[in-house]
Amino acid sequence: MTLAYDDLGAGRPVLLVHGHPFDRSMWRPQAEHLTRSGYRVITPDLRGYGASPSQDTRTGLDVFARDLVNLADHLGLERFVLGGLSMGGQIAMQLVRDHPARVRALLLADTFAGLDTPQARQARYDTADRITEEGMERYAEELLPKMISKQTRASRPDVEAHVRRMMRNAPKEGAAAALRGRAERPDYTKSLADVGVPTLVVVGGEDEFTPVGDAELIHRMTKGSTLVVIEGAGHLPNLERETEFNEALSTFLTSSGATP
């Protein structure tokens, strides 16, 4: 599997994993900030998203994680800082569980460690079938008000336009395959206790999809982790409040010893 990716800067590597239904441009503010600070930042499009192809009808999070390890091998990255948001955070939890020696430090943003309820699981299957049939446009418009806060929608038309564009342009087959695989993901809650690297947990204070309580649970289960709540942001604080997000990430990388 060949992933499309950006590889910017030089220094200690940071691999950032986007969420659903987005692409690698989701991490642009962090890639620009970290490369200016002396890091090497790798932002891939997951298989079936952006410019990365896929023929899957179901893509498990273990498959996404294996793709990322293969990309790291291709780039000669023995160890790296790993970050993910939402589904990307779940992929990061899968990767650090399966390949703990590869991860130097961990960022988990606006994500959820546990299993779906039976109703939520069925909703993923139903949504996958729906977007396969009708495409991403209506789905994107339904998601948008929950993805970013009311404050962001009122004050940051640039962010709203970027988020809408990513969602509407996501390949419907890849997004559907990921929804089906995500419905069958394992419970990562207990494995968080085995995470042996510095971990930053970030969440938007107004996140409707993965509320602050979900982040607090990850923080409690991951020993020695740091929790940062970014007020005024919804599910995408890295875009909605990029200055605060970047400051939290930079402070974490410095304090964790993951400096360039």
TrEMBL record:
One Pfam family this sequence matches: Abhydrolase_1
Gene3D superfamilies the record matches: alpha/beta hydrolase
InterPro entries in the record: AB_hydrolase_1, AB_hydrolase_fold, AB_hydrolase_sf, Epox_hydrolase-like
AB hydrolase-1 domain residues: 13-241
Transmembrane segments: none
A molecular-function term among this protein's GO annotations: hydrolase activity
Keywords: Hydrolase
UniProt cross-references to PANTHER family, sorted A to Z: MONOACYLGLYCEROL LIPASE (PTHR43798)
Protein name in UniProt: Hydrolase
